[in-house]
Amino acid sequence: MSETTVLIVPGLRDHVPQHWQTLLQARLGKVRSVPPLEEHKLSLAARVDAIQRELQTISGPVILVAHSAGVLMVAHWAAVHQRPIKGALLAAPPDLEASWPQGYPTSQSLRANGWDPLPKGALPFPSIVAASTNDHLASLQAVTRLALGWGSELVNLGAVGHLNPAAGYGDWPQADELIRTLDR
């Protein structure tokens, strides 16, 4: 990648050593990551502010690479901020209307922290939404609706679960290819 900086936007689990985003960050040249929050971890406003703070430290073109709730953070960030973004890779977004397994925030707790309603209009930059056919946090149908509403290209990854180490996906080399597509 030329002068483009990749900004990684992790989900609610923040940085996990064997996660594809962490491994991607280790092999890219110009890459930054939104740092984990120390408090107010479910606050959408705090998450959006963290994205904005990190973007303010980057000059030149940016590609956002978000996973899970990080995708929702990017959608909310784009609804309130104006910085030009070259593109976004949005992987495995969760469905706020689905019932999530134990150990995940409830829809009520997310609603109380500003996550709902989710912006549904077209994103102001090119984007690729990568979806799974067996994600326990969102059906392919729900993710397809999100991608259509955001004006995003949808990439069906097949049965990759939530595209995380728990689903058997540490490294995800296809991410590099999708980022190169956005960097053209």
UniProtKB/TrEMBL annotation:
GO terms for molecular function: hydrolase activity. Keywords: Hydrolase. It comes from the Bacteria. It holds the Pfam family Ser_hydrolase. Transmembrane segments: none annotated. SUPFAM superfamilies: alpha/beta-Hydrolases. InterPro entries: AB_hydrolase_fold, RBBP9/YdeN. This is RBBP9/YdeN family alpha/beta hydrolase. It comes from Pseudomonas kulmbachensis. The lineage of its organism: Bacteria, Pseudomonadati, Pseudomonadota, Gammaproteobacteria, Pseudomonadales.
